[in-house]
């Protein structure tokens, strides 16, 4: 299988894209350790997967804490006996323009979406160097490349993730470590659905309507993004490094 015996760390494992990633990597032979905020949600996901004969591990915690980020990587390196692939998928989306964004929204976006990625990569890279190479896939966003309206903290954090990815990709290519980012447009996950719910809009009909604005005919399902991330992490992408890959169903970003 594509990821036989690969040692893989996935953040945001309980979320929409995260669950698709954990399932995909575990079902393609990887030894997966995933992370998310809630111990209970992580345990439930692990049990659900176990019933499908997919064995995974997890370590729950808050990525806003530097100590948790570093412990996560140390725990993975010890329990998986190394790290081959790091998927920085966790993210949050504080909504608002600058006047609507308080300090907590700003720092939370930067802490989860950007600084945790910095801490996790910094801790994981020595393990990959020791193994003679590895792959990191970060999750930016089309809004990190073409900022959309009314999400200043989110767009700024995702733009920084794109720059971090390009910079790391250049610096660590000589180590055989490929660093890339995926930049999705809208994806049918709790992140997108709660945005509609908060505005009093029924998410199912809103997503169906939104799908009509996508030339491919639907809003991306989490598996359609997980497949691209897995490709970037796989041997098939062995010459792809320092790239930000837009996954949009051909929908231009505007607003
Ligand atoms: N859904 C979209 O439309 C969309 C579009 C572009 C990019 N993205 C990005 O894709 C990634 C996955 O998002 P998703 O759509 O699956 O969202 P999601 O909300 O379903 O999942 C995100 C996960 O990250 C976890 N997380 C958040 N803060 C954390 C913290 N402090 N510590 C530990 N875990 C934390 C959440 O608990 C959640 O399980 C994110 O980085 C997001 O920004 C999503």
Could you characterize the architecture of this molecule?
With 255 residues, the protein is of the alpha/beta class. It has one domain (7-186, 222-247): 3-Layer(aba) Sandwich (Rossmann fold). The protein is built from 9 helices and 7 strands, in the order βαβαβαβαβααβαααβ. It has helices at residues 16-27, 39-51, 66-79, 103-131, 142-145, 152-172, 190-198, 203-211, 222-233; strands at residues 7-11, 31-35, 56-58, 85-88, 134-139, 177-184, 244-247. It has a 7-stranded parallel sheet with strand order 3-2-1-4-5-6-7, sandwiched between helices. The longest helix has 29 residues, at 103-131. The structure holds nicotinamide-adenine-dinucleotide. The site of nicotinamide-adenine-dinucleotide (NAD) has 26 residues, from helix 1 and helix 7.
CATH superfamily annotation: NAD(P)-binding Rossmann-like Domain
What is the makeup of the main sheet?
A: 7 strands, parallel
Quaternary organisation of the protein chains: single chain
Which spans of ≥5 residues are poorly predicted at pLDDT below 50? none
From the coordinates shown, what is the CATH architecture? Answer: 3-Layer(aba) Sandwich
């Amino acid at each position: 299988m594509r990821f036989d015996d690969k040692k893989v760390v996935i953040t945001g494992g309980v979320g929409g894209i995260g669950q698709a990633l954990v399932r995909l990597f575990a079902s393609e032979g990887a030894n997966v350790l995933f992370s998310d905020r809630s111990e209970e949600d992580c345990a439930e996901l692990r049990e659900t997967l176990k019933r499908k004969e997919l064995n995974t591990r997890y370590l729950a915690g808050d990525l806003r804490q530097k100590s948790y980020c570093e412990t996560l990587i140390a725990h993975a390196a010890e329990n998986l006996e190394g790290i081959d692939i790091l998927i920085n998928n966790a993210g949050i989306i504080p909504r608002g323009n600058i006047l609507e964004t308080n300090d907590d929204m700003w720092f939370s976006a930067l802490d989860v979406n950007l600084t945790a990625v910095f801490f996790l990569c910094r801790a994981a890279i020595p393990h990959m160097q020791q193994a003679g190479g590895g792959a990191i896939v970060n999750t930016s966003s089309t809004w990190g490349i073409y900022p959309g309206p009314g999400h200043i903290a989110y767009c700024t954090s995702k733009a920084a993730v794109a720059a971090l990815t390009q910079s790391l990709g250049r610096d660590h290519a000589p180590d055989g470590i490929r660093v890339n980012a995926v930049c999705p447009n809208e994806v049918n996950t709790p992140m997108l659905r709660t945005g509609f719910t908060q505005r009093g809009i029924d998410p199912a009909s809103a997503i169906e309507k939104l799908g009509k604005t996508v030339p491919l005919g639907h809003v991306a399902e989490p598996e359609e993004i997980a497949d691209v991330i897995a490709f970037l992490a796989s041997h098939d992408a062995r010459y792809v490094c320092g790239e930000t890959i837009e996954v949009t169903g051909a929908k231009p970003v505007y607003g």
